[in-house]
């Protein structure tokens, strides 16, 4: 594996973990937040390499929204952070794909989710909107290790 790419992924994993820790502690999320104003702030995470494309864009800290919506938005951001961690870790472990697969593209925004897995000839081999299916598939392909950075999808 390209060592530079592996290093970039590890750096992104560290930053994502820091963002997850910020969110879990109740402090203000400082990483991956764009926008301004009371209702136009977003959590954005983008990643693109030869095997993996991630595009997440979710509402964040919209103070005019009711408390339930704010909690739901925070939960979605937490799940997106965990998913990005899982994907990058799986890519570094060479456990992202099954035989014949070469590229995964995943997007997540306030309107829905979508993932697509492509083969070597560029044809779509699998796609869907249910991320639990994708996560379960990845969890099954990863070895169980006590020092793993993998976080269980919740």
- On the 0 to 100 scale, the average pLDDT is 83
Shape: globular
Low-confidence stretches: 146-154
Span between N and C termini? 30 Å
| Gyration radius from CA atoms, angstroms | 16 Å
Topology, pairings included?
Layout: H1 3-25, E1 33-36, E2 40-48, E3 52-59, H2 67-92, E4 101-109, E5 112-119, E6 124-128, H3 131-141
Parallel strand pairs: 3-4
Antiparallel strand pairs: 1-2, 2-3, 4-5, 5-6
Helix pairs in contact: 1-2
What does this structure look like?
This protein is an alpha+beta fold. It contains 3 helices and 6 strands. The chain has one domain. A 6-stranded mixed β-sheet has the order 1-2-3-4-5-6, covered by helices on one side. Strand 2 and strand 3 form a beta hairpin. The two termini are 30 Å apart. The relative contact order is 0.15. The C terminus is likely disordered.
What distinguishing features does this structure have?
disordered C terminus; globular; 154 residues; alpha+beta; 3 helices; six-stranded mixed sheet; 28% strand
Briefly say what this structure is.
With 154 residues, this protein is α+β, with helices and mostly antiparallel strands. It is built from three helices and six strands. The chain has a six-stranded mixed β-sheet with strand order 1-2-3-4-5-6, with helices on one face.
């Amino acid at each position: 594996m390209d060592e530079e790419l592996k290093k970039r992924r590890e750096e992104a994993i560290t930053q994502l973990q820091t963002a997850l820790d910020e969110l879990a502690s109740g402090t203000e999320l400082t990483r991956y937040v764009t926008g301004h104003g009371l209702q136009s702030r977003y959590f954005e995470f983008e990643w693109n390499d030869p095997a993996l494309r991630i595009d997440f864009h979710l509402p964040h800290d919209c103070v005019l929204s009711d408390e339930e919506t704010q909690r739901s938005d925070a939960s979605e951001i937490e799940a997106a952070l965990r998913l990005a961690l899982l994907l990058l870790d799986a890519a570094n472990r060479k456990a992202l794909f099954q035989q014949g697969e070469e590229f995964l593209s995943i997007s997540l925004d306030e309107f829905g989710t979508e993932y697509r897995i492509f083969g070597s000839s560029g044809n779509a081999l699998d796609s869907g909107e249910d991320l639990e299916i994708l996560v379960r598939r990845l969890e099954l392909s990863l070895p169980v290790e006590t020092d793993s950075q993998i976080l269980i999808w919740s």
